[in-house]
Design a protein that fits this description.
The complex is a heterotrimer of chains A (440), B (394) and C (441).
Chain A: H1 6-10, H2 15-37, E1 41-43, H3 51-56, E2 60-62, H4 64-73, H5 77-86, H6 95-105, E3 121-126, H7 131-142, E4 147-151, H8 162-184, H9 190-212, H10 227-230, H11 232-235, H12 242-260, E5 266-267, E6 270-271, E7 277-282, H13 290-299, E8 302-307, H14 327-337, H15 344-357, E9 362-368, H16 372-375, H17 378-389, E10 393-398, H18 408-428, H19 432-439
Parallel strand pairs in A: 1-2, 1-3, 3-4, 7-8, 7-9, 9-10
Antiparallel strand pairs in A: 5-6
Chain B: H1 9-21, H2 26-33, E1 39-43, H3 50-55, E2 58-62, H4 86-95, E3 104-108, H5 112-124, E4 129-133, H6 141-163, H7 169-195, H8 202-211, H9 217-233, E5 242-247, H10 256-264, E6 267-272, H11 291-301, H12 316-328, E7 332-338, H13 342-357, E8 362-367, H14 375-391
Parallel strand pairs in B: 1-2, 1-3, 3-4, 5-6, 5-7, 7-8
Helix pairs in contact in B: 1-8, 6-11, 7-9, 10-14, 12-13
Chain C: E1 2-9, E2 13-19, E3 25-32, H1 37-65, H2 67-100, H3 103-128, H4 140-155, H5 163-178, H6 186-197, H7 203-215, E4 218-226, H8 243-254, E5 260-264, E6 269-274, E7 280-285, H9 294-304, H10 308-315, H11 332-341, H12 346-368, E8 375-378, H13 385-399, E9 404-405, H14 413-427, E10 438-439
Helix pairs in contact in C: 1-2, 1-7, 2-3, 2-5, 2-6, 3-4, 4-5, 6-7, 8-14, 10-12, 12-13
Classes of the chains: A alpha/beta (440), B alpha/beta (394), C alpha/beta (441).
Amino acid sequence: MAPTTKEEVKVQKDRSMILQKEMIAGHFERLEKAPETGEKVVYTFVPGNLTELIRSFGALPLLPEINALQSGMRGKSKGYIAEAERNGHSEDVCTYVKCDIGMLRSGNIGPTGTRLPKPDLLLLSYTGCYTFMKWFELLREEYDCPTVFLHVPYQGDGTLLPEHRAYVVKQLRETIIPALEQVTGRPYDEDLLRENLARSAQAEDDLVAVLHSAKNRPSPIDSYFGGVYYVGPIFSAFRGTPEGVDYYRALRQEVEARVAAKQGPLTPVGRLDDQKYRLVVEGPPNWTSFREFWKMFAEEGAVVVASTYTKVGGTYDFGFRHDPSDPLGTLADYCGGCYTNHNLPGRIEMLERYVKEYEADGFIINSVKSCNSFSAGQLMILREVERRTGIPGGFVESDLVDPRYFSAANIKNRLESYLQMIEARRAGGATSSEALGRLA
Amino acid sequence: MTTERPRTRADIVDTARRLYEDLEFTAVREWLAADPDRKAVGCLPVYVPREVVWAAGVLPVGIHGGGDRLEIIRGDAYYQSYICHLPRSVVELGLSGRLDMLSGMLFPSTCDVIRNLSGMWQILRPEVYVRYVDVPQVEHPATGLEFWKGELSTIYRDMCAIAGTEPSDEALWAAIDDYDRVRDVIGRLYALRRDEPWKVPTEELYLVMRAGEVLPPPDFVDLATAYLEACHAEPLRRRDNTRVIVVGSFCEQPPLGLIKTIERAGCYIVGDDFLLGNRMITRPPERGGDPVEALAHALLFHHQPSSVMYEPDPDAKEVTIKKMVDAARADGVIFAAASFCDPALLDRPMLRAGAEAHGIPCIAFKFSENTGQFQQFREQAGTFSDSIKLWGGA
Amino acid sequence: MNCFVGIDLGSTITKAVILDEAGEVLGRGITNSRSNYDLAAEVARTEAFVTARFGLLRKEVEKAAGGAMLDRLLRAFRTEQTLVQLDRLQHHIDAEVVSTVAGPLQQPVTEVIDEIFRRLRQEEEDWFAGRTEGTRSDFFRDHVGSGWARLSEELGPPVDVSFDLLLSLYDKCIIKVENEPLELGFQDHIDAALARIGDVEGVDAVRLGVERARDAELVEVATIGTGYGRARLPFAKEQIRSEILCHGLGAHRMFPNTRTVLDIGGQDTKAIQVDGRGIVTSFQMNDRCAAGCGRYLGYIADEMNIGLHELGPLAQRSSRRVKINSTCTVFAGAELRERLSLGEQREDILAGLHRAVILRAMSLLARSGGVDDEFTFTGGVARNPAAVAALEELVAENYGDRTLNISPSSIYTGALGAAIFAMRAAEEGRGVAGTGTRQEA
């Protein structure tokens, strides 16, 4: 989530962003050297990642989605996707997968320009996304290493039932931990895991304070475009690490200073203090035109005060914290609670709360072609959130990392139309009850 | 259903076709009307444990969209253009009242589209029972056993609550018996088609299979058995066709026209994964002991290789097609996936690479349930068949 | 008098509407969009001022001079405009022939071209004299283009001048004519137009009226641009509104009870909900795929080799509608050919296609919040009777009784909305004053 595009170097940056960039560069250097240092590398996905557990075995996590989105930001994904499609992958399916496969076939150079190590273990935490399963089956074809599978039940009825939690704990104990023991040659050390989990909780407290800061006016953060930076370390390799704790403490201080100074966040058009629209956004961003997309919002004076995408790696702002006193149980709860593992009514409720609690003027869905987990049902989410909040929603379409599906003119047109509608309603004092009646 | 068993091939196929074409589910409605205490529940593809539904006295009804016969007016309002067609027609069926006779809907973990549809249904139809059926995806079958037993028990309990019946092992075993008979007759029909495909045109077989999605298991067994007898009694002309298997159509179903097109282009379909859920379990659940355990065990240890179940064996994908082709004694493979079908399309590169590594000729195309033009399929399948006949490979 | 201008720069057609101080429509202008967006906007604006001044003229002297006389004057004016453009076209084509056609061919080509222009001018005179049947396109490019093609075919081949060469000359040069500023305003041609109608009875009253119309002070106080190409208009950001808002407001103005608006244009389809004041409360547009938009019907017309305007009437002759499941523009031709080869009737296929187009629109309407009473249908497809019939049927089936409004000037809906926004902005004293200048006649 730390962009490393050339453009990025030129733009103004917060201190936390520089810190994050250093952390990530350091991590990838360590990964590159892993074959020599003998550090073990575990490939795993962001939702339901077991970073504390992996690190308690001294292993390093590597997250293919992060590589894919980074490839998108660096303008590499188009070629990688083409490479995968030449090899028989359908144009219809997830572009993260194709980007990852294409990168692999093109030399496996990672986001910071270092060569990525082969996995010693493919740890599939099957959480909130069907495609993950196929992705690992595909990756497995490319590597000669053990694969281990954690089935995290979906919250079809809106909660992670006790028997489902027990099932996840059982798998951790009987499948995941033995696999990690075997690959690293180290025994499971629960005390070490507890220490990591305690650090996670600390960083999570700071992250939540940052996310909640958007309730201020002006909001000191952009919770979507800026938010993907804020969640970067905690969603990837740094949950439960001392660097992670330091990063979130620094970030929180930075944001609290902005609150005190009544400042807005840095955006591609500079500091956004004059915030005309407070928005909630659902859906992942587009990575190939990330800054252009952000700019479209910032130029109109729109700041995102809450987003669901920044919850794919955990829904901390609704209270969950990693609990060192129940190490495996808390990991089960964590996995079960990731955003895309929530059922549709749960997602709608979350959006409704965001709109209301963050006093948003509107909400926008960025529907990405790649991701059925997010996208299937979003039009119903749109309708329901409109009905419950009385605020009309906006709908734009793009993709994660396939630049063919980012039509700037189309998106800009819809976004501008949407914001002008919000403005006209505000000026005209359109009542929400009128909209409610209409949409019921 | 009529009590009189249709006898001739034409009669049986005609009955099956009427059931297939009937988007009002009249057969289900009539079954329900025969006794006010009866209940029915819809089952989305691919695999739902129908035994526990039927054991409760509830009729499991396969919901496979609207094919090419349903005009989509409301369904498209809920889906972007890059999502497959099936959920549109299911929503259309639901919002047009055609599924009002169902007391519940079961959405298995086929993919994220069907998963999310479960949540949509909770909102669209708050008055009906909705459950996401999280079929276990595991490394070792034993890992998922307890979990799946729990899921089966929960669904069974819920179905009994819907039907107002008492859970019992006897009822479960009786239902398992019924579905063993279903699997048995399906197995015999598929075997006959494999051995003498000119006797069992796939268009007909498919229609008979579809009847199984809406009829009570015993009625379906009667119909399918009658059809099996008719196939023997009324052989059709044997043709010099190529033998193919069709892979990738396990969820959204191809339009009947596509199946006909493949056959008319000179291919005998001797293996397929249409309506795969009806034969997902490959061995009868073991008798004695706990019926829930027996069912759970049967799925986890003896299921078809399929794109919707995690494949723990890293080498399995490579040989899957080879095994299927050998079992069906086929000459080639047609990968026919629904557009935007994640399970089928993500699996395809692996399966196809395996097939090619074994020198098995393949072609691939995409369809949607309401595809209305078959010219391109006709040309592809025809060329494929000719090339196999001429050179033994594409 | 103060006036307010709205300009709607569409993907194929650019429209302008002028409102007077009372908010009444004073004039409307239309032209085809072209590579030079500024110019397209300018042409539409000029046209709108021409019709505005003709409107003033009509108000002034209709009683004294009679409507027929004014119609004749307008016709004369149009003829003068056409002749000017023909001169420019000939100028460019002559130059093109000199620079691109090989020496020995130049003479026969020039002779054919001279003859084509002679006849085109004659046809223009015939049109003025009322000797021509049928209607003709408002756009110079189209009505001269069809005459050019016809005459090229007739005159070229007999003297071994290729039809393709003549057509390519036209295609190249019409773009030049369209992209250069021409004098097409009221002042530029009204005298010639007056001269053209001659010294007939009552012309004195008209002359007087013309003087007044010419002298009438029209001050363009504020201008708002909209439409898909709005970002390319030479306007400041405050002078630009989304076409969604303009469409909603324009439809509200045309039919004040409008609550739902459907617009099917060439490139996109919009479903818009408005409140009692014309403020947009919700909207949906088609995704990046243009399936089911007007362009799709265009492909079908091309494939069937008939005019776009003939599609609807043909479809209405159907007695047995064919079910069409896809409105994908990419497959339109293939699907059509397959259907025809199966022996389906053209009109039955067309009936199915129209229904499929409207079904797509129905899903957008549903996404935007449904169809409320009253329901206003705009855009090019609203002129297609088969599409309208399909829409009426589907709306009735799914939403019950709804009043369906279709205005003959629905093409101006967006520009009208923009002009109202211009007026409001001026009232609020916001700095959107377009030119603030008096419009020379």
